[in-house]
UniProtKB/TrEMBL annotation:
CDD domains for this protein: CE4_NodB_like_6s_7s (cd10917)
PROSITE patterns: NODB
One Pfam family here: Polysacc_deac_1
SUPFAM superfamilies xrefs: Glycoside hydrolase/deacetylase
BP term (GO), one: carbohydrate metabolic process
Listed InterPro entries: Glyco_hydro/deAcase_b/a-brl (IPR011330), NODB_dom (IPR002509), Polysacc_deacetylase_ArnD (IPR050248)
Stated name of the protein: Polysaccharide deacetylase
Top-rank taxon: Bacteria
GO function terms (MF aspect): hydrolase activity, acting on carbon-nitrogen (but not peptide) bonds
Taxonomic classification: Bacteria, Pseudomonadati, Bacteroidota, Flavobacteriia, Flavobacteriales
Amino acid sequence: MVSTTIRFNFFLKGYHSQPSEKSCIALTFDDGPSEYTPEILELLKKHQVQAAFFCIGKQIEKYPEIFQQILEDGHIIGNHTFHHTRKIGFLSSEQIFREILACDEIVENKSGLKLKLFRPPFGIINPKTKRAIQRSGHLVMGWNVRPYDAITKSPEVIIKRITRKLKPGDVILLHDNQQQTASILEQLLVILEKKNLGTLRPDKLFGIHAYR
Ligand SMILES: [Zn+2]
């Protein structure tokens, strides 16, 4: 049985959205670091927004300086496995466990940080993944606003999907390995200001620690 949406409380407790008295939402970026991440970091800095980046281990290996920049800018890092394989649904619990550990290891080697937060690739949580996460002891951070920005080509459609029902406490999933993400983010930040919605770093929104 495979849960393809991130609403997997049936399997595992996760953090997806947080009714908030403050008018704030949280931004999360998956699948980086990539060549497109620096432009995103510039925008976030310009608007004084802090976010979470769920990094892929092999991408950290490829872009170590960008990884450092994410941390220097005050964002938090989460685990998104080492290879982010499309075949994750076919991996054994042991293999998934090793994928999670390998991502933890490269982050600790590069930064000294011990990751606490995990986001499963493609939002897939099956019983094997659940077992691996219970063994690794990570907290799962999901999302509740998913605009399919890595699949849809039209920035207008993506922005509409994000903003049409946006409310305080929402957690938005974007991808920092897409060329169009910076331009989507730039427009989104303007819309947030118009709607009087601020942003909170996800760990602060949920009142949890990002690291052990
Ligand atoms: Zn991903």
